[in-house]
Predict the structure.
Amino acid sequence: MVTSSSRNEILGDSERSALAAREAMASKSFHPYPWYSPRFWHGMRFGDWMKLVIEHRFRIHPARIPMAVLLSGITPINSLLAACQSLIHGKRVASTDVIEPPVFIIGHWRSGTTLLHELLAVDERFASPNTYECFAPHHCLLTSSLFPLIFGILLPKNRPMDNMAAGWKIPQEDEFALLTLGAPTPYRRMAFPNCRPADSQLIDMEGVSPEQLQRWQEAMEYFVKLLTYRYGKRVLLKSPPHTGRIGFLARLFPGAKFIHIARDPYAIFPSTRRLWYALDAAQACQKPHHRQTDEYIMSCFERMYTAFFQQREELAPDQIGYVRYEDLVADPVSQIKRLYKELQLGDFEVVSPIIREQAEARAGYRPNRHELPEDVRQQINQRWADYFDAFGYARQE
Protein backbone atom coordinates (compact mmCIF):
# COMPACT_ATOMS: atom_id res chain seq x y z
CA MET A 1 0.00 0.00 0.00
CA VAL A 2 1.38 3.42 -1.00
CA THR A 3 0.57 6.02 1.62
CA SER A 4 0.60 9.76 1.11
CA SER A 5 3.97 10.06 2.86
CA SER A 6 5.64 7.20 0.94
CA ARG A 7 4.27 8.51 -2.32
CA ASN A 8 5.80 11.93 -1.64
CA GLU A 9 9.21 10.29 -1.05
CA ILE A 10 9.39 9.06 -4.65
CA LEU A 11 8.29 12.35 -6.22
CA GLY A 12 10.51 15.28 -7.18
CA ASP A 13 10.12 18.70 -5.56
CA SER A 14 7.99 20.15 -8.35
CA GLU A 15 5.84 17.02 -8.54
CA ARG A 16 5.29 17.07 -4.76
CA SER A 17 4.34 20.73 -4.93
CA ALA A 18 1.90 20.15 -7.77
CA LEU A 19 0.41 17.11 -6.05
CA ALA A 20 0.01 18.99 -2.78
CA ALA A 21 -1.64 21.87 -4.59
CA ARG A 22 -4.09 19.55 -6.32
CA GLU A 23 -4.94 17.73 -3.11
CA ALA A 24 -5.35 21.01 -1.23
CA MET A 25 -7.64 22.34 -3.92
CA ALA A 26 -9.64 19.13 -4.04
CA SER A 27 -10.27 19.42 -0.32
CA LYS A 28 -11.56 22.98 -0.56
CA SER A 29 -15.28 23.50 -0.73
CA PHE A 30 -16.80 25.45 -3.59
CA HIS A 31 -20.24 26.95 -3.62
CA PRO A 32 -22.51 23.93 -4.17
CA TYR A 33 -23.75 23.22 -7.67
CA PRO A 34 -26.74 20.88 -7.23
CA TRP A 35 -27.21 17.87 -9.46
CA TYR A 36 -30.45 19.34 -10.82
CA SER A 37 -28.90 22.66 -11.89
CA PRO A 38 -28.43 23.19 -15.65
CA ARG A 39 -25.04 22.50 -17.19
CA PHE A 40 -23.69 24.36 -20.23
CA TRP A 41 -24.37 21.32 -22.37
CA HIS A 42 -28.11 21.50 -21.65
CA GLY A 43 -28.32 24.40 -24.12
CA MET A 44 -26.81 22.46 -27.02
CA ARG A 45 -28.65 21.00 -29.96
CA PHE A 46 -28.70 17.22 -30.14
CA GLY A 47 -26.24 16.96 -33.03
CA ASP A 48 -23.66 19.18 -31.30
CA TRP A 49 -24.00 17.24 -28.05
CA MET A 50 -23.57 13.89 -29.77
CA LYS A 51 -20.58 15.18 -31.74
CA LEU A 52 -18.91 16.23 -28.47
CA VAL A 53 -19.51 12.82 -26.88
CA ILE A 54 -18.41 10.84 -29.94
CA GLU A 55 -15.22 12.90 -30.31
CA HIS A 56 -14.29 11.82 -26.79
CA ARG A 57 -15.30 8.21 -27.41
CA PHE A 58 -18.02 8.17 -24.75
CA ARG A 59 -15.47 8.40 -21.93
CA ILE A 60 -18.18 9.16 -19.38
CA HIS A 61 -17.70 8.24 -15.74
CA PRO A 62 -20.39 5.87 -14.43
CA ALA A 63 -21.46 8.46 -11.85
CA ARG A 64 -22.12 10.97 -14.66
CA ILE A 65 -24.11 8.62 -16.89
CA PRO A 66 -27.49 9.87 -15.53
CA MET A 67 -26.49 13.43 -16.46
CA ALA A 68 -25.46 12.30 -19.95
CA VAL A 69 -28.74 10.42 -20.41
CA LEU A 70 -30.70 13.49 -19.32
CA LEU A 71 -28.73 15.63 -21.77
CA SER A 72 -29.49 13.21 -24.56
CA GLY A 73 -33.17 13.66 -23.80
CA ILE A 74 -33.12 17.47 -23.50
CA THR A 75 -30.91 18.45 -26.43
CA PRO A 76 -33.43 17.24 -29.07
CA ILE A 77 -35.88 19.77 -27.60
CA ASN A 78 -33.32 22.48 -28.25
CA SER A 79 -33.04 21.29 -31.84
CA LEU A 80 -36.80 21.54 -32.28
CA LEU A 81 -37.02 24.98 -30.68
CA ALA A 82 -34.04 26.15 -32.75
CA ALA A 83 -35.86 25.15 -35.92
CA CYS A 84 -38.92 27.12 -34.76
CA GLN A 85 -36.86 30.23 -33.99
CA SER A 86 -35.11 29.97 -37.35
CA LEU A 87 -38.45 29.67 -39.13
CA ILE A 88 -39.97 32.69 -37.35
CA HIS A 89 -37.00 35.01 -36.91
CA GLY A 90 -34.17 33.56 -38.99
CA LYS A 91 -34.37 35.79 -42.05
CA ARG A 92 -34.82 38.96 -40.00
CA VAL A 93 -31.86 38.14 -37.76
CA ALA A 94 -29.69 37.38 -40.80
CA SER A 95 -30.60 40.67 -42.48
CA THR A 96 -30.04 42.77 -39.34
CA ASP A 97 -27.40 45.44 -39.66
CA VAL A 98 -25.11 45.87 -36.67
CA ILE A 99 -25.89 49.43 -35.55
CA GLU A 100 -22.52 50.19 -34.03
CA PRO A 101 -19.42 48.00 -33.73
CA PRO A 102 -19.47 45.94 -30.53
CA VAL A 103 -17.48 46.72 -27.41
CA PHE A 104 -15.45 43.75 -26.13
CA ILE A 105 -14.22 43.35 -22.55
CA ILE A 106 -11.13 41.15 -22.59
CA GLY A 107 -8.50 39.87 -20.19
CA HIS A 108 -7.42 36.54 -18.75
CA TRP A 109 -9.81 34.54 -16.63
CA ARG A 110 -10.07 35.84 -13.06
CA SER A 111 -8.62 39.24 -13.95
CA GLY A 112 -11.82 41.14 -13.19
CA THR A 113 -13.69 40.88 -16.49
CA THR A 114 -16.95 39.98 -14.74
CA LEU A 115 -16.78 42.99 -12.44
CA LEU A 116 -16.05 45.35 -15.32
CA HIS A 117 -18.77 43.75 -17.45
CA GLU A 118 -21.44 44.13 -14.80
CA LEU A 119 -20.49 47.75 -14.16
CA LEU A 120 -20.61 48.70 -17.84
CA ALA A 121 -23.76 46.69 -18.52
CA VAL A 122 -25.84 49.08 -16.38
CA ASP A 123 -25.49 51.62 -19.21
CA GLU A 124 -28.81 51.17 -21.03
CA ARG A 125 -27.23 52.31 -24.28
CA PHE A 126 -25.58 48.89 -24.41
CA ALA A 127 -27.14 45.49 -25.02
CA SER A 128 -25.29 42.83 -23.07
CA PRO A 129 -26.34 39.17 -23.21
CA ASN A 130 -27.63 37.59 -20.04
CA THR A 131 -27.06 34.03 -18.87
CA TYR A 132 -30.20 32.68 -20.51
CA GLU A 133 -29.40 34.22 -23.89
CA CYS A 134 -25.94 32.64 -23.78
CA PHE A 135 -27.42 29.35 -22.56
CA ALA A 136 -30.11 29.15 -25.24
CA PRO A 137 -29.20 31.37 -28.21
CA HIS A 138 -31.00 28.91 -30.51
CA HIS A 139 -34.41 29.71 -29.07
CA CYS A 140 -34.10 32.61 -26.59
CA LEU A 141 -36.27 34.83 -28.81
CA LEU A 142 -39.11 32.36 -28.25
CA THR A 143 -38.54 31.16 -24.70
CA SER A 144 -36.77 33.87 -22.66
CA SER A 145 -39.99 35.29 -21.25
CA LEU A 146 -41.10 31.90 -19.90
CA PHE A 147 -38.27 29.42 -19.35
CA PRO A 148 -36.19 31.54 -16.92
CA LEU A 149 -39.30 31.92 -14.75
CA ILE A 150 -40.01 28.20 -14.78
CA PHE A 151 -36.39 27.14 -14.24
CA GLY A 152 -35.25 30.08 -12.12
CA ILE A 153 -35.07 28.02 -8.95
CA LEU A 154 -32.67 25.54 -10.55
CA LEU A 155 -29.67 27.91 -10.50
CA PRO A 156 -27.64 28.29 -7.30
CA LYS A 157 -27.33 31.67 -5.59
CA ASN A 158 -23.59 32.03 -6.31
CA ARG A 159 -21.22 30.85 -8.99
CA PRO A 160 -19.32 27.74 -7.87
CA MET A 161 -15.86 29.33 -8.09
CA ASP A 162 -16.36 32.67 -6.28
CA ASN A 163 -18.78 34.95 -4.44
CA MET A 164 -20.31 36.56 -7.54
CA ALA A 165 -24.05 36.08 -7.95
CA ALA A 166 -25.53 33.62 -10.44
CA GLY A 167 -28.84 34.01 -12.25
CA TRP A 168 -30.56 33.85 -15.63
CA LYS A 169 -30.75 37.66 -16.01
CA ILE A 170 -27.17 38.46 -14.99
CA PRO A 171 -24.75 39.57 -17.76
CA GLN A 172 -22.86 36.58 -19.10
CA GLU A 173 -19.89 35.93 -21.36
CA ASP A 174 -20.65 35.22 -24.98
CA GLU A 175 -18.17 32.31 -25.17
CA PHE A 176 -20.95 30.16 -23.69
CA ALA A 177 -23.22 31.20 -26.54
CA LEU A 178 -20.55 30.11 -29.03
CA LEU A 179 -20.37 26.79 -27.17
CA THR A 180 -24.10 26.15 -27.36
CA LEU A 181 -24.20 27.31 -30.98
CA GLY A 182 -21.78 24.50 -31.82
CA ALA A 183 -18.80 26.70 -32.65
CA PRO A 184 -15.27 25.56 -31.78
CA THR A 185 -14.28 26.89 -28.36
CA PRO A 186 -11.81 25.83 -25.65
CA TYR A 187 -14.76 25.62 -23.25
CA ARG A 188 -15.60 22.24 -24.74
CA ARG A 189 -12.64 20.97 -22.67
CA MET A 190 -14.79 21.13 -19.53
CA ALA A 191 -16.98 18.25 -20.69
CA PHE A 192 -14.01 15.86 -20.76
CA PRO A 193 -11.23 17.49 -18.71
CA ASN A 194 -9.15 14.29 -18.44
CA CYS A 195 -8.71 14.15 -22.22
CA ARG A 196 -6.56 16.30 -24.46
CA PRO A 197 -7.88 19.91 -24.22
CA ALA A 198 -10.40 20.54 -26.98
CA ASP A 199 -10.05 23.45 -29.41
CA SER A 200 -7.05 24.94 -27.62
CA GLN A 201 -6.04 26.56 -30.92
CA LEU A 202 -8.95 28.96 -30.38
CA ILE A 203 -6.92 30.52 -27.54
CA ASP A 204 -4.59 32.28 -29.99
CA MET A 205 -6.17 31.36 -33.36
CA GLU A 206 -2.93 29.64 -34.41
CA GLY A 207 -3.50 26.46 -36.39
CA VAL A 208 -7.24 27.05 -36.78
CA SER A 209 -8.48 25.33 -39.92
CA PRO A 210 -10.49 27.30 -42.51
CA GLU A 211 -13.57 25.26 -41.59
CA GLN A 212 -13.18 26.01 -37.87
CA LEU A 213 -12.58 29.69 -38.55
CA GLN A 214 -15.70 29.89 -40.69
CA ARG A 215 -17.84 28.17 -38.04
CA TRP A 216 -16.48 30.47 -35.34
CA GLN A 217 -17.06 33.60 -37.43
CA GLU A 218 -20.59 32.55 -38.37
CA ALA A 219 -21.52 31.87 -34.75
CA MET A 220 -19.92 35.13 -33.59
CA GLU A 221 -21.69 37.19 -36.23
CA TYR A 222 -25.00 35.42 -35.66
CA PHE A 223 -24.96 36.13 -31.92
CA VAL A 224 -24.12 39.82 -32.38
CA LYS A 225 -26.91 40.15 -34.95
CA LEU A 226 -29.30 38.27 -32.66
CA LEU A 227 -28.68 40.74 -29.83
CA THR A 228 -28.88 43.72 -32.19
CA TYR A 229 -32.16 42.41 -33.61
CA ARG A 230 -33.58 41.90 -30.15
CA TYR A 231 -32.49 45.13 -28.47
CA GLY A 232 -31.61 47.57 -31.25
CA LYS A 233 -28.57 48.79 -29.30
CA ARG A 234 -24.80 48.64 -29.38
CA VAL A 235 -23.65 45.22 -28.18
CA LEU A 236 -21.37 44.89 -25.15
CA LEU A 237 -19.61 41.52 -24.87
CA LYS A 238 -17.17 39.95 -22.43
CA SER A 239 -15.10 36.83 -22.95
CA PRO A 240 -11.58 36.01 -21.71
CA PRO A 241 -10.82 33.81 -24.77
CA HIS A 242 -11.38 36.85 -27.02
CA THR A 243 -8.11 38.27 -25.62
CA GLY A 244 -6.10 36.26 -28.14
CA ARG A 245 -8.53 36.99 -31.00
CA ILE A 246 -8.71 40.79 -31.07
CA GLY A 247 -7.27 41.01 -34.57
CA PHE A 248 -9.86 38.58 -35.91
CA LEU A 249 -12.69 40.37 -34.09
CA ALA A 250 -11.52 43.75 -35.38
CA ARG A 251 -11.66 42.44 -38.95
CA LEU A 252 -15.03 40.78 -38.40
CA PHE A 253 -16.48 43.95 -36.82
CA PRO A 254 -14.61 46.97 -38.24
CA GLY A 255 -14.39 49.77 -35.67
CA ALA A 256 -14.93 47.45 -32.69
CA LYS A 257 -13.69 48.70 -29.31
CA PHE A 258 -11.75 46.65 -26.77
CA ILE A 259 -11.25 47.15 -23.04
CA HIS A 260 -8.49 45.06 -21.53
CA ILE A 261 -8.33 44.47 -17.80
CA ALA A 262 -5.14 43.22 -16.14
CA ARG A 263 -4.51 41.83 -12.67
CA ASP A 264 -1.58 40.78 -10.53
CA PRO A 265 -0.36 37.47 -12.06
CA TYR A 266 0.21 36.01 -8.59
CA ALA A 267 -3.52 36.38 -8.00
CA ILE A 268 -4.55 35.24 -11.48
CA PHE A 269 -2.88 31.83 -11.37
CA PRO A 270 -4.39 30.36 -8.17
CA SER A 271 -7.75 31.95 -8.90
CA THR A 272 -7.79 30.43 -12.39
CA ARG A 273 -6.83 27.07 -10.92
CA ARG A 274 -9.80 27.33 -8.57
CA LEU A 275 -12.01 28.31 -11.52
CA TRP A 276 -11.17 25.19 -13.51
CA TYR A 277 -11.42 22.92 -10.47
CA ALA A 278 -14.87 24.31 -9.69
CA LEU A 279 -16.21 24.28 -13.24
CA ASP A 280 -14.80 20.84 -14.03
CA ALA A 281 -16.40 19.47 -10.87
CA ALA A 282 -19.76 20.98 -11.80
CA GLN A 283 -19.78 20.47 -15.58
CA ALA A 284 -17.67 17.44 -16.49
CA CYS A 285 -18.86 14.08 -17.76
CA GLN A 286 -15.80 12.64 -16.02
CA LYS A 287 -14.34 12.69 -12.53
CA PRO A 288 -11.50 15.18 -13.15
CA HIS A 289 -8.01 14.24 -11.98
CA HIS A 290 -6.45 17.66 -12.82
CA ARG A 291 -3.04 16.29 -13.72
CA GLN A 292 -2.92 18.69 -16.67
CA THR A 293 -4.52 21.75 -15.09
CA ASP A 294 -1.47 23.71 -13.94
CA GLU A 295 0.33 23.34 -17.25
CA TYR A 296 -2.89 24.16 -19.10
CA ILE A 297 -3.15 27.45 -17.18
CA MET A 298 0.50 28.31 -17.81
CA SER A 299 0.46 27.50 -21.52
CA CYS A 300 -2.93 29.10 -22.24
CA PHE A 301 -1.73 32.32 -20.64
CA GLU A 302 1.44 32.31 -22.74
CA ARG A 303 -0.43 31.62 -25.96
CA MET A 304 -3.16 34.14 -25.20
CA TYR A 305 -0.80 37.02 -24.53
CA THR A 306 1.65 36.22 -27.30
CA ALA A 307 -1.32 36.58 -29.66
CA PHE A 308 -2.67 39.64 -27.84
CA PHE A 309 0.59 41.59 -27.97
CA GLN A 310 0.93 40.82 -31.68
CA GLN A 311 -2.65 41.50 -32.72
CA ARG A 312 -3.13 44.72 -30.77
CA GLU A 313 -0.69 46.36 -33.19
CA GLU A 314 -3.49 46.13 -35.78
CA LEU A 315 -5.78 48.39 -33.70
CA ALA A 316 -6.01 52.17 -33.75
CA PRO A 317 -5.24 53.90 -30.42
CA ASP A 318 -8.91 54.80 -29.89
CA GLN A 319 -9.96 51.15 -30.35
CA ILE A 320 -8.39 49.75 -27.19
CA GLY A 321 -8.34 50.91 -23.60
CA TYR A 322 -6.63 49.48 -20.53
CA VAL A 323 -7.46 49.23 -16.85
CA ARG A 324 -5.96 47.30 -13.95
CA TYR A 325 -8.19 45.35 -11.60
CA GLU A 326 -6.59 46.92 -8.54
CA ASP A 327 -7.27 50.43 -9.87
CA LEU A 328 -10.83 49.54 -10.84
CA VAL A 329 -11.61 48.25 -7.35
CA ALA A 330 -9.99 51.28 -5.72
CA ASP A 331 -11.83 53.90 -7.81
CA PRO A 332 -14.32 52.38 -10.27
CA VAL A 333 -16.06 55.60 -11.23
CA SER A 334 -12.97 57.53 -12.31
CA GLN A 335 -11.51 54.52 -14.13
CA ILE A 336 -14.68 53.91 -16.13
CA LYS A 337 -15.03 57.64 -16.85
CA ARG A 338 -11.51 57.60 -18.30
CA LEU A 339 -12.34 54.61 -20.51
CA TYR A 340 -15.50 56.30 -21.83
CA LYS A 341 -13.42 59.31 -22.83
CA GLU A 342 -10.52 57.40 -24.38
CA LEU A 343 -12.74 55.07 -26.41
CA GLN A 344 -15.49 57.63 -27.16
CA LEU A 345 -18.23 55.43 -25.71
CA GLY A 346 -20.67 58.30 -25.14
CA ASP A 347 -21.52 60.81 -22.46
CA PHE A 348 -20.37 59.28 -19.18
CA GLU A 349 -22.40 61.70 -17.05
CA VAL A 350 -25.60 60.08 -18.29
CA VAL A 351 -24.67 56.81 -16.60
CA SER A 352 -22.37 58.09 -13.85
CA PRO A 353 -24.97 57.97 -11.00
CA ILE A 354 -25.97 54.34 -11.59
CA ILE A 355 -22.37 53.18 -12.03
CA ARG A 356 -21.50 54.92 -8.77
CA GLU A 357 -24.45 53.18 -7.11
CA GLN A 358 -23.40 49.79 -8.47
CA ALA A 359 -19.81 50.34 -7.35
CA GLU A 360 -20.92 51.22 -3.82
CA ALA A 361 -23.11 48.12 -3.68
CA ARG A 362 -20.05 45.98 -4.46
CA ALA A 363 -17.80 47.71 -1.95
CA GLY A 364 -18.14 44.84 0.54
CA TYR A 365 -17.21 42.10 -1.94
CA ARG A 366 -14.31 39.94 -0.78
CA PRO A 367 -12.36 37.84 -3.29
CA ASN A 368 -11.11 34.38 -2.42
CA ARG A 369 -7.67 34.14 -0.80
CA HIS A 370 -5.07 31.75 -2.19
CA GLU A 371 -1.63 30.41 -1.36
CA LEU A 372 1.00 30.10 -4.06
CA PRO A 373 3.77 27.44 -3.91
CA GLU A 374 7.25 28.82 -4.48
CA ASP A 375 7.98 26.69 -7.56
CA VAL A 376 4.77 27.95 -9.16
CA ARG A 377 5.76 31.53 -8.33
CA GLN A 378 9.07 30.97 -10.11
CA GLN A 379 7.32 29.59 -13.19
CA ILE A 380 5.04 32.62 -13.27
CA ASN A 381 8.06 34.93 -13.09
CA GLN A 382 9.73 33.18 -16.00
CA ARG A 383 6.86 32.28 -18.29
CA TRP A 384 4.66 35.34 -17.81
CA ALA A 385 7.46 37.94 -17.77
CA ASP A 386 6.05 39.96 -20.69
CA TYR A 387 2.76 40.43 -18.85
CA PHE A 388 4.51 41.84 -15.76
CA ASP A 389 6.36 44.34 -17.92
CA ALA A 390 3.42 45.30 -20.12
CA PHE A 391 1.02 46.09 -17.28
CA GLY A 392 3.39 47.33 -14.62
CA TYR A 393 3.40 44.51 -12.06
CA ALA A 394 6.47 43.83 -9.95
CA ARG A 395 7.99 40.36 -9.89
CA GLN A 396 8.64 38.83 -6.49
CA GLU A 397 12.13 37.38 -6.61
In short: The radius of gyration is 21 Å. Residues 20-391 form a domain with the Rossmann fold fold (CATH 3.40.50.300). The chain has one domain: 20-391. The chain has 18 helices and five strands.
